[in-house]
## 1
Amino acid sequence: MNKITNNKAWFLVLPVFFIVAISAIIPLMTVVNYSVQDIFDPQTRFFVGTEWFEQVLGDSRLHDALLRQIFYTLSVLFIEIPLGIAVALTLPRKGWGVSASMVLLALPLLIPWNVVGTIWQIFGRADIGLGGYVINLMGIDYNYAQNPMDAWLTVLVMDVWHWTSLIVLLCYAGLRSIPDAYYQAAKIDGASRWAVFRFIQLPKMQSVLVIGVLLRFMDSFMIYTEPFVLTGGGPGNATTFLSQFLTRMAVGQFDLGPAAAFSLVYFLIILLVCWVFYTVVMNAGKQGEQ
Amino acid sequence: MARIDLKSLAHSYFPDPKTDEDYALRRMEHVWEDGGAYALLGPSGCGKTTLLNIISGLLTPSHGQVLFDGKDVTSLAPEERNIAQVFQFPVIYDTMTVYDNLAFPLRNRGIDEKRVDARVREIAGMLDLTGKLKQKARGLGADEKQTISLGRGLVRDDVSAILFDEPLTVIDPHLKWVLRRKLKEIHNKLRPTMVYVTHDQVEALTFADKVVVMYGGKVVQLGTPQELFENPAHTFVGYFIGSPGMNIMDCKIDDGAAWVDGQRISLSDRHLEAVSKQTGKLELGIRPEFLTLETGNADKGSDGIEVNITKVEDLGQFKIATTRFGASEIKVKLGEDEQVVGQSGILRFAPEWTKLYADSQLVA
C-alpha cells in the first residue's frame, strides 16, 4: 500500500504548539535564562554559568526551608490519606445521608486558599477567636503568633481541614464502584473486616489513591497562601516553606538570578518525586501479571 | 454436607406485605436432601436468587425457618453457616495470586497450611488451574476468573452445601460444557449438597439429579428431568421445559371428550374422572413430541383433526411443524426423514400423553 505523504498536516499541529509554547515553554525558558545570567537591565547582562545554582544549593536557610517543607508535606500525607480513607469507609452508602455528607464534605474544597488562611487566623486568636480562646481556656498556652510550634500545627490543621475532603470524595467514589457481590463473597469466604478492607476495598481504591497522593503531595509541597496569611512565614521562620522562601528571594530581595535557579530546582524536585512515586506504584500493580 | 429444610419459608422485600404480589417468595415447604445435586430453574425474577441468598444467609427471610440437619440457622450469618456460594460474575481478590485466592476461604477459618496446600492443589488440578497458581489473579481473563470463583466455592470440603448462582453466564460455550462436566464429576466423587441456579434448561437438566422449577415466587415442581418432561405439574413447567415447549390450549369437557376450538379430542376415562371434580379454567396440554402429523390425503378417521400447516422448520436432527386449527397454534416435532406434503394435514393426539390442567395445575 502506498502511503500518501502530506506535509500540510503539520500545520494542524501549530495551534497546539503555540498554546504549549506560550503556556509552558516560553515562561520556563525565561526562568532558565535568568538562572544562568546576572541581569541588571536589558542591555547589561553577564553569563554566570552555574554560579546561582551553586549559591542556592549551598544556602543553609534554603536547606532549613526544604527540611521544613519535607516534614510538613509528609505530615500532611500521613494524616490526610488515612483519615480520608477512614472517613470514606464510614460514610453512608444510601439514603439522604449520602447527599448531606457530600455537601458537607465539599464545602471546605470550595473555599479559596487565602480565605481559609483568614478564617483560621481569626479562629485561632486567643482574644477573639473561638478555637484559640477555647484552647487557652483548657489551660494550654496556645498562640500561633509567638510560638513556632503552634504556628506550624495551625498550618497543618488548616490543610487537613481544607483538603481531607478531597481524599474522602476520591475514596468514596472508589468504594462505590465495588459490586455487592464482592462483599457477599467475602462473607461466604469468612473474611474478617480487616481482610475485606485489605483485599477488596484497598485494591479498588488504589488508582484513586494514587491520584489523591499526587495531588496532595504537589499541593502541599507548593503551599504558600495559608502560612502567608496566617503569620507571613513566622514566627521566626517556623512556617517559611519553599514557596515562601522563593517569593521572599524573588519579590522581596529582587535576587532574580538565584530565585530562578531555585525555581528550577524546586520544579525538578516535584517532577522527580511524582515520577518516582507513579512509576513505583504502577509497577507494583503489574508485578506477577505475566 | 447437610440436609436443608425450608419450613413455611416466605420472603418479602417490603416491610409490610399485603397481597401475594408483595412477596418475592411465596410460602413454601421444601427439602434439599443431603448429597443431592439440584438445579433451581426458572425465568428471571422468579425468586431463584432470593431463595439462594436465604439459604446462604446473605438474606434473612421475613417469614419461616431454614434448618441445616434439623438445626435452625435462620438468623445465622453466612460465615457461621458453613456454606459456599459462587456468584454470577467472577469475584476474585485482585491483589492475590491464584493460589492465595483459592486458599483464602480455608485460611480465614484457621486451617493449617499443610491441609490448605493439599486442598488448593487438588482443586486446582480438577479445574486445570495448576499451571497458573503463582500468577496474580488480576491479569486473567473472565473465564479463568470465574473458574477461580468456582474453585473457591469447592475448596472447602466440610461445607453444608455449595450454592451456584448462574455461575457459567460469563463463560464461553465450550468451556461451559467442560466446567459443567467437572462439577458433575466433583459431585459424584464427593457428594456435596449442590444447588445450582439457572434459567437455562439444558444446563439444569444436564447438571442435576433433581430439578426444582420456580415460577412467580413459588416452587411449581420438583422432579427428575424425565418427570418434568413427561408429567409437568404446572402449565409453566410444560411451557418452560422442552424445546419447543408444551402446546397449551383452552378446552371444555363435553360428551366424554375435550373440545378445543370446536374440534373433538378424545380422552381416557382417567382424565374424565379426574376432571369431573374440577371447576377452574381448563387447559389441555401436549408436548410436540407426542403429536403425529399425517400429510398427503391422509384419512381423518375418528380421532384426527384437520389442520393447516403454516411453517416447517428443519433444525437438523428434527423438524418443527407449526399447525393451525381455529385460533389454536400447535407445534409438532417430526423426525428428520418425515416428509410434509402440502398445506394441510391430519393431527392426532396420543391420549396417554395428553394432560389436563385446571387453573394451571395438573389434573390428569
## 2
Amino acid sequence: MIELQNIFPEIFLTLSLLFLLVAGVFLKNSFSLIKKITIILLLICIPLVYVNYDNQILIFNNNYSINNFSNLLKIIILISSAFSLIFTGQYLKRLKIEKFEYMILILCSTLGMFVMVSTNNLIGLYLGIELQSLSLYVLSSIDRNSLKSSESGVKYFVLGALSSGLFLYGCSLIYGFTGSTNYFIINENFTVENIGLIFGLVFVIVGLAFKVSAVPFHMWTPDVYEGSPTAVTAFFALAPKVAGMGAFIQILFVAFGGAFAEWKTIIIFISVASMILGSVAAIGQTNIKRLMAYSSIGHMGYGLAGLATGSLSGISATLSYIFIYVVMNIAAFTSILFFSRDKKYCEDIRDLGGLSKNHPVVAVCFCIILFSLAGIPPLAGFFAKFYIFKSVIESEMYILAVIGLLSSVISAFYYLRIIKIMYFDTEQEKFDDISGLGMKFSLFSSSFLILFYFINPSFLVNITEIASKVFN
Amino acid sequence: MLAHALIFYLFSFVAIISSLAVISSKNTVHAVFFLILDFVSISCLFIMMGAEYLGMLTLIVYVGAVAVLFLFVVMMLNVNFKELRAGFLNYLPFGSLIGLVLLIEIGMMIGTWKYRDSFIKTSEIQINNNLTNTESIGNVLYTDYIHYFQISGLILLVAMIGAILLTFRQKENLKRQNITKQVSRERDDGVSLEDVESFKGVKLND
C-alpha cells in the first residue's frame, strides 16, 4: 500500500477524468464548465507531482520509476496540457466542436504520457504510447464536418498503427534475446555482439522517432498539423513531443545504456536529417500550421542532438531545450489563434500583412516569439540552442555542431519572412478584436518568460542538471 | 483412456472436415458457419489438453467477436463472389507455389520434432500443478501487472469514447420515448370536454 501514494498524481488524473466523463454525459451544454474544471484539475496536479519531487522510488516490481527526471517531465506535460486548454479561447465554439469529450481525451492523453515517461518496462511504454496516441487520433478528427480534419485523423491513425507495429516487433526481439521487458534486466543481458538485439534496438528507436516526428519518420507531421483544428495542432506540438523525448531518454539511457556506440550513429543521423529537413522544407510553406510542423521537426532534431552526446550534460541540455521549446510553442500557437478575420481563422502567412497596425502588442509578442524560435540572443530560444551546442562541442562532435548551426541560420530565413510580412506588407482587412483572458494571459506570460529568461538562466539549468543525474 | 481418444478423434475429425468445408462451400454464409464450427471444435481440443483458459478465450474472441463480425460483413456487404472466382486459373500457378512452400515448411517442422528438447527446456519452468491456468494468470495479472491491466482498461475506454464521438450524430426533430412523461400523464392532459353547439364545428387546440 506504500506504493499508492507515489502514483497519486496518476490516480488523481484517472479519477478526475472518469468523474468528468460522467458529469459531461449528464449535464447538458457543460462544455465551458468542464473545460474550466479540467484546467483547474491539471493545475492542481502540478503540486501533487511536486510533493514527491525528490523521491527516488521504484515501484510495481521495478517497473515504474518516480524520480526527479520523470517528475520534471510530468510537470512540463501538465503545464503544456493545461495551457493547450487555456489558450483555445473561443476557437472550439466558433468551429462548433464544443464537445466535452475534448477535455476527457486530453486528460487520457496526459495520463498516457505520464506512463510513458515513468515506466521502466516495454509493456508499460507500449500501453502508455497507445493510450496517448489513441486519444490523439480521435482529437485530430474531432471536426467531423471538415474533410481535412477527418483525413488527418485517418492518416495519423494508419501511420501510427504502422509505427506501433514496428515498435512491437522490436520489443519482441528484445524480449526474446534478453528474456525480460524490464529496462534494468534488458540492460544487464544486453550483448552488443547479438545482431538480433541490435535489430530490436533499431525498431524500437524507429517507433519512438515516429512519435517525436523525427526525419525520416516525419511524413505524417505536416499533413496532420494542417488538417487538425488549430487548438488540437497546438496540443500535438506540445505535450506528446515532451513525452516522446522523455521515453526516448529513458529507453536509451536505462535499457540500452551499454550499447551507446550502437545507437549513437542512429541518433546522430536522425538528428542531422531532422535539423536539415526542418529548416529547408519549411522555406516553401505558406500555411502557418505546416510551417510550425516543419519547425517542430527541426526543433526535435536539436533535442536529439543533445542525446547523441550520450553524456549527462547532453541529457540536461535536451531537457532545457524541451522546456523552452514548450514555452515558445505555447506562445506561438496562442498568437496563431489570435489571427482571425470575421471569425474565420487565417492560416496563410500572407494574410498576416499589416498585423502591426491592427494589433501592435500581439505583433510585438509574435515578433519576440519568432526571433526566439530562430535562436537570436538574448531570447530563450538562443539559450536552448546554446546548451545543446555546448554539450555537443564538449563531446567533440564538431560536424554535428556545424550542421546544427548552419540549419539554424537557414531556418532564421522563414521566421524572419513572417516578421517582414507582419511589419512591412500592405494592410488587408481588419483583424477581429482581441478577447479572452486566458489567451492574453497565455500569450503575455510566455512571451515574458522568453524575453526575460536571460536574467536567471541558472534556475532551469540547475533543475535539469539534477534531473539528468538520475541516469548516472 | 479409450473415451479420451475417441473424443479427441471426434473433435479433430470435425475440425478438419469443417475447415475443408470453409474453403470449399459455395455459399459464403455457410463458410462462416463452418468457420465457427471449426473454432468451437478447436477450443474443445484446447480444453482436452488442459488449456482451459486458451479454449475459453478462443470461444469468446474468435467465435464471439471475430466470426460474428465476418458474418455481418458477408451478409451486409454484397460481394459478388462469382466475379472473385473468375480468375481461378490465372492465380493457380502462384497459389499452388505458396501452397507448396507451406507444405515444405510443415514437413520441415515435423522433421525437426525430435530436436525439440534442445529448443524448449520445459524442465526449467516451474509449474504449480495445484493451480488452474486461469488462476495462475489471475495471480500475476491482478498483483504484479495490475497497473498494466488498469491502463488497458483506460485504452478500451478511450476507444469507446472515440467511436461514439466520431460516429454519433444527435438528430433534431426526432421523437423519442420518454417513459416518465408517459407514465405521469394525467387524464386532464389528454382529454377535454367541449360543449358542441348544433350546426357548428368545434375548434380544438393541439
